[in-house]
């Protein structure tokens, strides 16, 4: 294992220290339980948008804390959902009478821990709503599984609900909006190499030099199927097809296309893939009106990419364009 | 023939020991079909349980179990944290403020734990989770306790034997709950890490009760 | 070789197509010669700040094209300096009577090609100045080598001169400022793994599992020395020492600290390293007043980091803080 | 016994052929001590030279060399592009509008090329660059041309032999110019890729002249 770390058990805490130093203007970090909190939290009269999950997906979620996006992020250990008391502490630190929206990625651990946290916070008198995002079309049949995973769509959901909270929407309205976004966002990913979890010390799966994992998750859990490495044209077509053939995209739609690096795929490849994806969508009559390209939801040093499509309308577009000032996304400010 | 706070503490410490010993094995099992953290998560939690028990002076089995439950809930995270946390919490609640538990009570605590995990995780036997170890364990414990003169050691030893078999049974299953479910058929041939940790913990309890 | 590409010969052109689609609001891309140009170029009455070099270091340079930074970037083939005609075309597309500043990283190829381009452009009547950045302290004795390499300092130089050009500084003034920045910026890097050049197909060097290249460049050229993998604390101390013991940093200084990922080092490690570096600088009485943390000058999918220190004063700080709107750096707008 | 536009074209095409053939070797040499692109750069440039010569109808050796020079300058990039470009450009200038070059003229073109590379790159013999192949090549060509009745083939063959030796000599040198200079002592034991390509190109010229 080759990493720039000290004791694997201290990785998250030490990394958060650096995050706080680098971005003290927009956020602050709290230890034990570990939390990343907006510098100006609690924001009087506004719904607090909170998310969290295992670490190792940076900038998700801590890098999205700031004006116009998350009020707090709750980082667990690497690839491990945070515990209920940490989530509850995040609610306590950021939410007032306007309440809190918890954005939960659909993994058993996250769902269970956030569920408990919501109960605890409600018991303290804070109105809390939870939404579970499950945008990964790689998981085929949700009747016989833990359901679809929350992946790239999470980034877009956090941006859009954060903007709604910022403009003063009520908890009801922010929740309704979140469910709308979840209903019309879909993603799929592919891995060329495996990530290595610091405490495990060996790569999470073994791939031959000419194999890739299609339908990969973001935790090094193996994907839908193992296929031979293919050209960018073929691979991106495979990804686009998998998404578009899932509901709810059709010719005539306007969409946001999010081309994401899983970590180690360099920008030169990412832009190349993005260009192919736009071309393929255009051929299907789907118009890309907004884009996000970069490493925004990663899996440590895994090589790979994911594509996310969000169907847009005037409201979602305006909320996407709204000012945001976080370590990882910043515009309009 | 009953077991008080001290005996239950000894059992929980034995579980912590076995989790630490098998940390790497549990990581490896999870690496194959999940995200390579089950051994790390369990060990992180049980390490703090050991410290918490050293700092506290619980007077009943229920208090011991409650300390373990709260620590696991706040330190483990992932799927295992809430599930094991619930298991210990339900057992603690069941134990109430009895000063000792006997063989029959142990069966009841185990059943309460199982019911708790099922309520939280909604998994059934055959879904390739810790339920596949815990369900036969409870049944076996019940059967053992029904034998005249059965002591706690006999009950727990029967439970551990059944849990071992249950864990073994997950090797051939297609997972339907938890992270391994994404893999479908590709998970066949691998033991579920949570079923394995359940079997290990029950074995530690049984050894501690001897 | 595991990459999301089609024909290795087309990587740069196809990637630029994606860049143009993703960031059409701030830049446009021209083919043959390949150029990345500010959407609103030429900007009347302002000095055009232009840089370029081999591709594979993205976002450098194309990702820094936009308001307040570069007017044009000239991407060569992967790790290969662009040719003089391409650089000249960039000058022609962006520079008017106010002239152009060429920012050249100190590599034989870049220096020779940009030199020729400057001559060609001057012959066409455009005032051109070139500055050569050589901030890499890993190269010890410049008398016996091609001199120190241009690395991380390039990013800061492009931002600061771009801001000066934006506020309307003359070519003389922008050049003077550039030389000042070059005089007080220093960098050093380390690699944990090697990059793979698409047309070569194999990693640029072979490192054992417990070895790292200290003093690495950004082209997979091997570094100053090969040393055993060590803890983050020890490694960052080694990097900080190498920079600080070079001129011109002293106790009492205010600096910008730029903690850069070479590509595949994930943010969780990068922030961890950044936190250690800040602590070590504080111990030396050096105050970090500005920071940049992220993958900004990379070497394909190489794992590793670099640290860059720029001594600040009020003018440089103001120029750093000035608005910028590019794909990779965006604030104040 | 002179060589006109056609003969020089043949020589340049032969050089393009040998560069294509040795593309991987040159990449590998550069991978060891540089950035693994020399073979790719040279091949990209010479491929376009071949196309450019096919499209044009140069009438003198100077015109052929000028087409090659301009193409190399605008297609190769890196250090090799300007250096080889300058070499061909200086040779073209030297050839002026002569319709043919003889053995003596070939020596003069080679010397002009060498002077051009030295002026651009400022490298000396012993710095482990293409200068270490080109310098002895020019000296050997000069000596060969001084022999009564020497033809172009003899001159170029002597140049190629010397360039081979010169390239070989870079193996033991500590580089002081170009990318390999960053490596210092660690570059010892590796042949300089540019010296190797110079030797290959001169050998191709010599073969073409036979
Ligand atoms: N719904 C569920 N019901 C019961 N047990 C479950 C369920 N989901 C997961 N598990 C158990 O949790 C184990 C995984 O724990 P762990 O690896 O610590 O958490 P995570 O999956 O969040 O990484 C699985 O091996 C399985 O036994
Ligand atoms: N200053 C110089 N003078 C002469 N030749 C040089 C000089 N610098 C580099 N070279 C030659 O250029 C070769 C490298 O060419 P190439 O790999 O194509 O360019 P780059 O180094 O820019 O990647 C070296 O092997 C060396 O022979
Ligand atoms: Mg986990
Ligand atoms: Mg797990
Ligand atoms: Mg090069
Ligand atoms: Mg090279």
TrEMBL record, chains A, C:
Q: Which UniProt keywords apply?
A: Kinase, Transferase
Q: Name one GO molecular function term.
A: glycerone kinase activity
Tell me the InterPro entries matching this sequence. DhaK_1, DhaK_dom, Dihydroxyacetone_Kinase
Residue spans making up a coiled coil are none
- GO terms for biological process, alphabetical: glycerol catabolic process
Asked if the record carries the keyword Kinase, the reply is: yes
GO cellular component terms, A-Z: cytosol
According to its UniProt record, what is one Pfam family this protein matches?
Answer: Dak1
Which parts of the sequence belong to the DhaK domain?
A: 7-331
Q: Which NCBIfam families match?
A: dhaK1
- Name of this protein: Dihydroxyacetone kinase, N-terminal domain
Q: Which organism is it from?
A: Amycolatopsis xylanica
Automatic annotation (TrEMBL), chains B, D:
Q: Which keywords annotate this record?
A: Kinase, Transferase
One Pfam family from the record: Dak2
The Gene Ontology biological process terms listed for this entry are:
glycerol catabolic process
Q: Does the keyword Zinc-finger apply?
A: no
Domain (DhaL) spans 6-207
Matching entries from SUPFAM superfamilies are given as:
DhaL-like
Could you state a single Gene Ontology molecular function term?
A: glycerone kinase activity
For this protein, the record's SMART domains field holds: Dak2
GO cellular-component term (any) = cytosol
What is the protein named? Dihydroxyacetone kinase, C-terminal domain
Native species of this protein? Amycolatopsis xylanica
